[in-house]
Amino acid sequence: MIKKLIVQVICTLICFIALLVSCKPDSPDYPLNTENPANPLTPYSIYHPARFPEMKIPDDNKPYKERIELGRMLYYDPILSNDGRACANCHLQSYGFTVPGMVNGMPVLSHVNMAWYNNFMWNGSKKGGLEDVMQFETREFFATDLNKMNNSTTYKELFKKCYNVDYITHKEIGYALAQFTRTMISDGSKYDRYIKGIEDMSYDEKKGAELFFSEKGDCFHCHVTLLTTDNSFHNNGLDSIYTSDKDKGLFMVTGDAKDLGKFRTPNLRNVALRNSYMHDGRFKTLEEVVEFYNSKVRKSATLDPVMTKPGKENGLQLNAYEQKQLIAFLKTLTDSAFITNPNFSKP
Ligand code: HEC
Ligand code: HEC
What is the model's pLDDT at position 22? Predict the structure, then answer.
């Protein structure tokens, strides 16, 4: 009797496992079968700027030329959405892969040097690597219609070649987008070229850089290194009372009171090409941003201690000329080679 029961339980378990395995399409957890000796791919070595931190690439999404090209094609193809939009509609190369103005009440985040991020979105609602955030984009943000993808003979062939799959799921789409966006690297701004010793900066630009990277301006505590972001969360003093949930930042993700008003430090590359700053686009010019850091920082329990260091209780108190120099420096972070790089344009 007991033996029969055990056999029954084992059978049920086997059936259950078989069912799980048969659910494979669209489960995010199965390993991609990348080995297809019949269809060798071309290995691709991603350019690594000398002074940047190490880049982590997941083992199950090694860079290949064909995959990067596929990701690029998808990035520009409205097939991913159900309303005619492509990623590139909001993430435009000429603006550093963002777009002027606001979308859904917030500025569109740029796509630049994202290979080094492990937190995504203004309030950090997405964690992980590019593979994770890109799967979110196709699965949830665009809710890409997989029938449409699988009815496309072009994509069927390309995904078969690149990922050796017979049925395209959000996972492979996300992985291909991750391949392309990982190559979107900017290290050719005037400031980069100055650091590399191949171009000089003006006196004011240099003074602005000094302010940015010294205790006087203190920007570098959060906008760290050449990446200009620590990819972490801070309350930089925009609000002391919260009238809207979206101003609560990371708190909306964690529910922890110590995260109130904290946002991920944004990347400042190509910042001069934007026209709406902060998570709600409240500032329209860099002058307004610098004026904010200079004298309008609001105090609250979660305000970053850097903002009120001794002598800075009432903001940085830079004079008008120093403010201009700081802005002159921010403008040297514009990378015209990046925004015109043919490798990132519409294929
Ligand atoms: C309708 C405009 C729009 C479209 C189309 C769009 N995005 Fe975005 N994207 C945004 C906005 C707005 C944000 C900021 C959202 C937030 O912080 O909550 C964003 C943020 C992101 C981020 C986070 C960047 C960071 O620095 O954390 C990624 C990654 C991203 N988008 C990828 C994509 C991809 C891939 C596509 C196409 C599949 C796409 N987006 C299509 C508007 C758009
Ligand atoms: C304590 C950390 C911290 C310090 C110090 C800091 N920032 Fe920020 N910065 C942030 C955070 C966080 C945001 C995003 C806030 C939000 O999303 O609303 C931000 C946003 C910005 C933006 C807007 C970027 C965009 O894309 O909207 C600019 C420009 C900027 N900071 C420049 C500076 C300058 C210049 C300094 C030095 C005077 C400085 N920051 C000092 C954390 C900091």
Answer: 41
Residue whose token pair is 């972490």: 232
Q: Which residues line ligand 1 (CB under 6 A)?
A: 80, 85, 87, 89-91, 103-104, 106, 108-109, 120-122, 133-134, 137-138, 142, 177
Q: What is the pLDDT of residue 311?
A: 87
Nearest-CA neighbor of 170 among 201, 140, 194? 140
| Residue 270 half-sphere exposure toward CB, CA atoms < 13 A | 26
Tokens representing 68 are 């990067």
Nearest-CA residue for ligand 2 atom 37 is 219
Q: Are 66 and 175 in contact (CB under 8 A)?
A: no
Q: Indicate which residue's Cα is closest to atom 13 of ligand 2.
A: 265
pLDDT digits (tens, 9 = 90+) for 40-89: 899 999 999 999 999 999 999 999 999 999 999 999 999 999 999 999 99
d(CA 313, CA 3): 76
What distance in Å separates the CA atoms of residue 87 and residue 109, rounded to the nearest whole number? 12
Nearest CA to ligand 1 atom 11: 108
Does ligand 2 have an atom closer than 6 angstroms to the CB of 293?
yes
- Measured in Å, residue 90 CA sits from the centre of ligand 2 at 22
From CA 273, how far away is CA 250, in angstroms rounded?
A: 26
For Cα atoms 262, 266, 270, give the angle at the middle one, nearest 5 degrees: 160
The predicted-structure confidence for 283-302, as pLDDT tens digits, reads as follows 999 999 999 999 999 999 99
- Give CA–CA dist 271/259, Å, rounded: 25
For ligand 1, atom 9, which residue shows the shortest CA distance?
108
Ligand 2 within 6 A of CB of 248: no
d(CA 96, CA 275): 12
